[in-house]
User: Fold this.
Amino acid sequence: MLRGLICAAVVFCAMAAYANAQEQQWEVGAIGGFGYSPNLTVSNSTTSASTGVKTGLAVGVYGGEDMYRYWSGEASYLYRAGDLKLDGSGKSASFGIGLSGRNFTMKCEIVAATIRAVSLL
Assistant:
């Protein structure tokens, strides 16, 4: 988990430094929160089990740029800690497979504006 937090902090600092060196068309920020996933119940004729992802910390960074008159772009990275879990028949198990149940999400978006943004200042 510490490695993921350090990676997120380094990416955030690099993006902030780069955006500060450019014109004000860039924006960067930090994302923080708490990850929760509802459980899923799996059953057959003799027994049932509840499965899901344990709750955990979620942190990340994002950045965006207003590139053209009607187009802009955004990118974000999100890290979430939480092991896989399985509960059933009075027993429970936790699976830290490979990356110990960590979730990594990266997304990029191209945003189209139908109305041009106007500054009031």
